[in-house]
Design a protein that fits this description.
alpha/beta, Rossmann fold, five-stranded mixed beta barrel, 7 helices, binds hypoxanthine
Amino acid sequence: MATPHIGAEAGDFAPDVLMPGDPRRAKRIAETVLQDAQLVTEVRGIFGYTGTYDGAPVSVLASGMGQPSIAIYATELFRFFGVKRIIRIGTAGGMARHLDVGDVVIASAAHTDSAMTASRIPGIHYSHAPSFRLLAAAASAGGYGAPAPTGRRRRAKTGSVYVGPVLSSDTFYADRAEINDLLVAHGTLAVEMEAAALYACADREGGEALSICTISDLLFRDASLPAEEREMLFDRSVQLALAAFAQA
Ligand code: HPA
């Protein structure tokens, strides 16, 4: 029973799905993190695999970039393939001044400028929130709320884990300095392009979702991660997501 965008059969996906944006990351996760991963779809080069992790079935499917794209894949997974939980593992631009590249932001809420949301429930400013169970499990796996280490090791090489709101923007190349200032003044940590639509689709389809973002660049100063470090740090988000699936 293939859908327009997923060329798989019913039962091909596990109830738990990891969702990076980049199809090559999906492939790498399938090859290096999952056991016995089988390719289940490759429509439009959006690779999907199902395997196991610690004996539990887990799938990985790329979302592509932006809210319309992730909404298509999330809706089809929840509605037609029996998927119950999706954790997006992506990158985000750091907005709050205390963030550094390599930090992780677990999105406890997602603001958005997307027209997809303006029309969702007429007259309502819809609040995009993740599954609290997945959020709590990922935060706990990330050591959030644990006493801070002291001395020289205070800032681990792997960066810190934060929990807070993100902006899911429809525009990557935006000129929005004043908007950014207002968002930061309202507690927003980072900008990415998918969490809000994923959370809304999970709500609409009766599923659960969470977005875990590695900070890949900063909006307030020049900084980016070398490719090798980016993959290592990205793997950390994958581990947080797998721990959240196991513990939630
Ligand atoms: N904007 C939007 N999405 C992003 C960014 C950004 O600066 N960095 C990583 N994903």
